């Protein structure tokens, strides 16, 4: 479990739209947006855990995996991400090769990063 993650994005507005929509399906809320400095923060509770900076330098490649509470959240994350500029990198479904009950969806964000929502189903 991480405390927070910060990274740069190429297009602040495009990434803000993508992450605001898709992460809301996992219970994250926009905690702040600073248009002047191209910064935004998201959190699922009282803390800001995920921060975007519109600095333009988006390398090296990253893989981000966000925990979901249900299969439905994974599905909704995927739909929202695809509707807001994401590209399919793995439709929602069980990934038995990753472990029993591993249900996930993968999308490529506007900067080419692999973003995953996953639910570990204890009944599978």
List the helices and strands and how they pair.
Blueprint: E1 5-8, H1 12-24, E2 29-34, E3 39-43, E4 50-53, E5 63-67, H2 71-83, E6 87-94, E7 102-108, E8 114-120
Parallel strand pairs: 1-4, 5-8
Antiparallel strand pairs: 2-3, 3-4, 6-7, 7-8
Helix pairs in contact: 1-2
Structure description:
This protein is α/β, with parallel strands linked by helices and 124 residues long. The chain has a single domain, classed as 2,3-Dihydroxybiphenyl 1,2-Dioxygenase, domain 1, CATH 3.10.180. It is 21% helix and 37% strand. The chain has two helices and eight strands, in the order βαββββαβββ. The protein has a four-stranded mixed sheet, covered by helices on one side. It has a four-stranded mixed sheet with strand order 5-8-7-6, covered by helices on one side. β6 and β7 (102-108) form a beta hairpin. α1 (12-24) packs antiparallel against α2 (71-83). It starts with a strand and ends with a strand. The relative contact order is 0.22. The model has no long low-confidence stretch (mean pLDDT 92).
Task: Name a few traits of the molecule.
2,3-Dihydroxybiphenyl 1,2-Dioxygenase, domain 1, four-stranded mixed sheet, single chain, 124 residues, globular, 37% strand, alpha/beta
Summary, kept brief:
The protein has 124 residues and is an alpha/beta fold.
Number of domains: 1
CATH architecture: Roll
Q: What integer value in Å does the Rg equal?
A: 14 Å
Distance between the termini: 23 Å
Strand residue content: 35-45%
Q: Which sequence of strands runs across the widest sheet?
A: 1-4-3-2
Could you name the CATH homologous superfamily? Answer: 2,3-Dihydroxybiphenyl 1,2-Dioxygenase, domain 1
Uncertain runs are: none
- State the shape: globular
Give the helix proportion (percent range).
Answer: 10-25%
What CATH calls the topology is 2,3-Dihydroxybiphenyl 1,2-Dioxygenase, domain 1
